[in-house]
Amino acid sequence: MKKSLLALAALTAFAGAASAQSSVTLFGVVDVSARYTEYDDKGQYQLATDGNASSRLGFRGVEDLGGGLKAGFWLEGSLSADTGTMPLANINGGSGNSAAIFQRRATVSLMGGWGEIRLGRDYTPTFWNWTVFDPFGTNGVGASTNLGLEVAGLAPGGSYGTLVRANNTVGYFLPAMGGFYGQIMQSAGENVNGNKITAFRLGYAAGPFNVAGAWGTTEVTPSVDGDNWNIAGSFKTGFGMFSAFYGMLEVGSLEQENWFLGYQLPIGAFTLKASYGEVDRTGVPTTVRCPTTGAGASGTCVAQGDADQLALGFTYDLSKRTALYGTYSMVSNSGTRFRAGQLVNNDAAYSSLGKDSTGYEFGVRHSF
């Protein structure tokens, strides 16, 4: 009997030690809001998603290989919490592409004191500064990306699939180096326009300061490259956190310049947010380059001009994982057609350039 108890205790201890060497986590975010978006006096009410954070469902894990070496994986897919579906996206065009389940991230890594090597689909270095320094985290009607990252029709037969993420990437992340951080990325084009990227990001965060710069170039077509660079930073004070961003995107004759200023002020369970940004596009015809109705309609066409956006909002933390939020934004267009939020199945609202757009939403976000 004693031998059986000793054997059971030893087996339990061994199982505990083995499980300590490897872990797998299920995680996600569910974010739903009541939203109203308007462009040129044409509006739409929605039960929308991703107003405060991107709804998602994912799995991640780490295995300790010994000697300071670890292996890890990360699989993360988008979740349309308003309909209970996981949208399947055809990533970066191409007739040979299959619908992606884990379109947000799908990577495998080796990690150690020397840094991390990461393979798969991941955020591009040039996108990080957009989302890290935006008070609204590039989500909802107040996102800074409402004035950027929609560049359909840049070049005949071309596309730009690396503004947020890229497929087939090999990346390297620096280890902790006294406040310095950074990454480099290279992806294989695999005969898909707009997927071949070379990019890097380098930053420094210490005390109240955080500043980073990023640069990347993407093969939009075999004869046209897109250059994308930006610099951004934040500073925490007793009066809240201030942030700023400046970036430039160049594709052929197109030049798109973006900048925004942000502010966040925590007051108890509340966090007040505000941002103001502008975009200026030059070097493209004043006429729209892609249809707004009929076959091939996208509603995200390139037009020459400029626009600005003012966004105000708040979050109220009910707990560490659950929050209520509200956001209002107003976009003023001059020759362009940027919107405070997407109008679903309403191409008629895109038919006029240079009109104003507004949006507001109230929602709840829960992470697990």
Description:
The relative contact order is 0.15. The chain is globular. A hairpin with a 6-residue loop joins strand 9 (165-173) and strand 10 (180-187). The chain has a single domain, classed as Porin (Beta Barrel), CATH 2.40.160. The strands form 2 sheets. It has a 16-stranded antiparallel barrel with strand order 1-3-4-7-8-9-10-11-12-13-14-15-16-17-18-19. It has 368 residues and is mainly beta. Helices cover 8% and strands 54% of the residues. The chain has helices at 2-20, 125-133, and strands spanning 22-39, 42-49, 56-66, 69-78, 89-90, 99-100, 105-112, 115-123, 165-173, 180-187, 197-206, 209-221, 224-237, 240-251, 254-267, 270-282, 305-317, 322-334, 357-367.
Summarize this entry quickly:
With 368 residues, the protein is mostly beta strands. It has helices spanning 2-20, 125-133; strands at residues 22-39, 42-49, 56-66, 69-78, 89-90, 99-100, 105-112, 115-123, 165-173, 180-187, 197-206, 209-221, 224-237, 240-251, 254-267, 270-282, 305-317, 322-334, 357-367. The protein has a 16-stranded antiparallel barrel with strand order 1-3-4-7-8-9-10-11-12-13-14-15-16-17-18-19.
Q: What is the CATH third-level topology name?
A: Porin
Total number of domains: 1
Percent in helix: under 10%
Coarse structural class: mainly beta
Based on CA atoms alone, the radius of gyration comes out at 22 Å
Tell me about the biggest sheet? 16 strands, antiparallel, barrel
CATH class: Mainly Beta
